Amino acid sequence: MTPQSTKSTYWQGVGAGAPFILVIVPFALLFGVVASEAGLDIVQTFAFSVLVVAGAAQFTAVQLLSEHAPTIIVVITALAVNLRMAMYSASLTPHLGQAPLGTRALVAYCMVDQAYASSILAFEKHPDWTTRQKVAFYFGAVTPLMPLWLLFTLVGSLVGGRIPPEFALDFAVPITFLAMIAPMLRTAAHVVAALVSIAVALMLAFVPYSMGLLVAGLAGMMAGAQTEWVMTRKERAP
């Protein structure tokens, strides 16, 4: 592999991650505003994004803190929301597991939904890529995302509630996850897992502190696993 091929793969990653800028910017702005309204100062808000680097978990934690939820509930819920990162890591291990320890640590720190979604699709499409090429693609996908996430978190905290509600920044949250999830619903198991988790989340919307989301996530994973098992048995049947 030549340096040029790694460079090319990096720029492919940049191109794959760039479209998510359209939702990362309002997403980060919204978090900064929400954190500010919840009582966090600029330093706390910025440190939150630098240390956690997980928008969904950050929103969940701030919301629960604003509702004066017990600290243990905040921690458990935020960790549960971030359990998807463990699944991301497991699916990336066959592709990036041979990278040096320091590189893998940096990949783990930069593990964001959009970069993962872009990368896993590219890795499956290009099984001939080397580990270095895959690492280059991953960091390319991260490049247009993380700096803007941190920058606009800071901007959102600074401007606070001065952003007009007509801007409807809250659209960024569902749009972000729809843009990531839709291309990945490629099998019956994926679709069933998504539908079951949505249904359970809606049914348990009344549960305090958004705890229904934890149940919905578990239900979705169980339904997806069961569907995968049934489909595998059908394929193996004579």
UniProtKB/TrEMBL annotation:
It is a multi-pass membrane protein. It is found in: Cell membrane. Signal peptide: none annotated. This is Predicted branched-chain amino acid permease (Azaleucine resistance). Pfam families: AzlC. Belongs to the AzlC family. Keywords: Cell membrane, Membrane, Transmembrane, Transmembrane helix, Transport. The chain crosses the membrane at residues 12-34, 46-66, 72-93, 105-123, 135-155, 167-185, 191-224. InterPro entries: Brnchd-chn_aa_trnsp_permease. One of its GO terms (biological process) is L-valine transmembrane transport.
